[in-house]
């Protein structure tokens, strides 16, 4: 194609409907911007490499592509993007500036795909190099499409890029104009302005997805069985694309993967690292691989079939490189940082009883408690070194805790699930070093001593002396008390008191998961204090978590998406430590959990460029019920992620973005305060209270009854909305406010219209609804400016949401204060 103008305004490009826009052009001229003519010269397909059925490098322009607005049923907002060929390094690429576009923006023309169509198969892969480009919007998707029938029916392999960073590759599909985000796959961090090789492989109903020739995941979907064509789709995300290829689905990338992280920190003489290697050729058969160390004096490597063993020999750094035999360009690396070998210090510092917890010589320590050592002044971590715990009877090493890159594993639950998380295990509180042993490492009724390596701290003084390490000779010993009785159904947790069964809330939760039957009622009484921990409960019903006072009992941790991605409520594999989810409290398969008289807080503070999703609780449920009474739930983005059924009575929920969300069948907030806090990334922003993903139109969804919508000082007037949609036809936006009072931070329009909710126009039974809304002072609110998608309920229509018995009538549940 010879382009007389370098850019097109897509909203004016084609004067036809969605199906017409996808048809083959029969003329050598087509309308351009403002009616201008654009010359079109058909371009023959360039020569492709052997085995490649179709290829496109854009060196000859855009003659084989239909560039189009999204079309009816596939576009929300204005299709005002623009496309152009630009020079990127040594090659030409297609760049698409999104504007406000959402939908299909390019489909290959029929004649250009004829070589593929002639093969009479819908089994093929499509891959391309894609570079997401930041265009300052809140949305995030760019997709490479296959089996495109038209703008309303296709499969897509998609990059999820939000605020410059994400960690998701996704499978999207459209059927009959209904768009669905069908699956998310974990992937490396995806950033703007960097090229990625994206590949979607379609064979029958099986779809496989790859990023940079690394397998990301698979999905089975039988809904589209025709070859169709290929194309591109976006949701307000600019991008560049190049080097598109289509070929046989039986030809796969050469794969090389490791079951270890890209970084390894150890010490000379420490435990060797076993790396399991998966290597396959393009036909799926096993491949050989080689592995070498850049510094064998620091890390030696021994290869044994699919397993390689890395041994730390000396202090320093080394890069361990694994190379595919079938494709020497395919490599994986582990960067090793090896500390000096641990040396048991022989220094003494006099009596440590007043400086340590458990106190040196203690006979009644807790197996689930933290350790602390108080210095004369506040030291700092050096980044290396460790705290070690030994069994006193035979000097057996029980636990090693390091100052960075630590993990922890909770569980197992009664049904054998674990929660593995990335989690710092050391911190300073003033001049005191606080150390959390790995969960379950210490036993009840055992005798231990503690050692601290000299390199751990800089500029430290202990008991009037320069700190040069602490070892067995220093005398920090303690004995743990006998285990609490397995039959206990009322347990006490106290972080520093004398009369308690546990020092940690998680210690008590693990006890009841392992010791009591699923249905046995149990109460965990948590004394006033600050409990810095993550929690995990699974497979145990009728648990009550009861604080001593609502503001005095604080359970908190700074957990967030970039630290522990996604939502997780346990996996079967004990060794997995990076899929435990971003919530402080992860709950699954636990009916009638009650949380009362305490504060649950995710203390993460959002930062620009860091994904700040940070739940206080993730309640994974179907028919299970959650009760929260006289309690505070405080975070910023995504404070509550609720499913199943939940009742929040006389509670405070605080956050800024989508801070109440999920797929609840019925979540009732009664006599509660819903507080919008100042966005720490931009104080001028308002917020979004709810994002409902209700799976059935008949489910009540999220109901706010006799509640107050308030704000933190600094939240601007009119900048916060009652809800925004997830933008998927799979979910219903069932959110209802009944007899609730609202401060001036709530927008007069009430609801956020991008994307469009489902249903697009609410009625008495589904969608965005209100009844009896008032100002904080009690004056009736005028709702004349509310968006047209919302619905003002009549008194009769509001009745099913006006009492808790009515809200939970589907299951006959009548919870009481």
UniProtKB/TrEMBL annotation:
<dbReference type="InterPro" id="IPR011050">
    <property type="entry name" value="Pectin_lyase_fold/virulence"/>
</dbReference>
<feature type="signal peptide">
    <location>
        <begin position="1"/>
        <end position="21"/>
    </location>
</feature>
<dbReference type="InterPro" id="IPR000070">
    <property type="entry name" value="Pectinesterase_cat"/>
</dbReference>
<dbReference type="InterPro" id="IPR008964">
    <property type="entry name" value="Invasin/intimin_cell_adhesion"/>
</dbReference>
<dbReference type="InterPro" id="IPR012334">
    <property type="entry name" value="Pectin_lyas_fold"/>
</dbReference>
<comment type="similarity">
    <text>Belongs to the pectinesterase family.</text>
</comment>
<dbReference type="Pfam" id="PF01095">
    <property type="entry name" value="Pectinesterase"/>
</dbReference>
<keyword id="KW-0063">Aspartyl esterase</keyword>
<keyword id="KW-0378">Hydrolase</keyword>
<keyword id="KW-0732">Signal</keyword>
<dbReference type="InterPro" id="IPR003343">
    <property type="entry name" value="Big_2"/>
</dbReference>
<protein>
    <submittedName>
        <fullName>Pectinesterase family protein</fullName>
    </submittedName>
</protein>
<feature type="domain" description="BIG2">
    <location>
        <begin position="250"/>
        <end position="334"/>
    </location>
</feature>
